[in-house]
Amino acid sequence: MASQTPRAEGLTGGPPGSWAEVLPLLESHTGTYWLSGPHSGHRPHTRPVLAVWVSGQPWFASGEGTAKTGLLSAAPDVSLAFQAGGMDLVVEGSAQRILDRARTDRVARAYAERYGWAPQAGDGVLTGAEGAPTAGPPPYAVYTIVPTTVYAFPSDDAPHGPTRWRFDA
Length: 169
Hints:
Helix content: 10-25%
Number of helices: 3
Number of strands: 11
Order of helices and strands: EHEEEEHEEHEEEE
Largest sheet: 11 strands, antiparallel
Shape: globular
Structural class: alpha+beta
Radius of gyration: 16 Å
């Protein structure tokens, strides 16, 4: 997982941001994220998702029979864009379906804490009587994005300039 500290690079003349300071903002963020990945033929496929940050990286749910889930299994390279803590952010990486219950349980608890949606964790899926916002009907496949690069573009008087964090493979 992304527990490593990424290498920060300033994108302009300003100082780069600190991952240790930005990560808590990401972990507490609630709101809409925009997930983009390629269709066959390389056309972009962008959809809103409600993501949660657990163990230093974003996680999201997707209905088992949705186009998004089918596309992720065929082409896992994605980007996730959102706004948090006075910054516009983009996470680039590889979406990986998670099948173990322990991590699925942590993701279910994070959804309950941050969004008030309380799914039940299974082996690699989330279920429950209440449907997931933006994910279609249950069951829901659970994905994480293993980041390769995260970009932050401050939109206010942040103490740092635009930053790129690189995660070494």
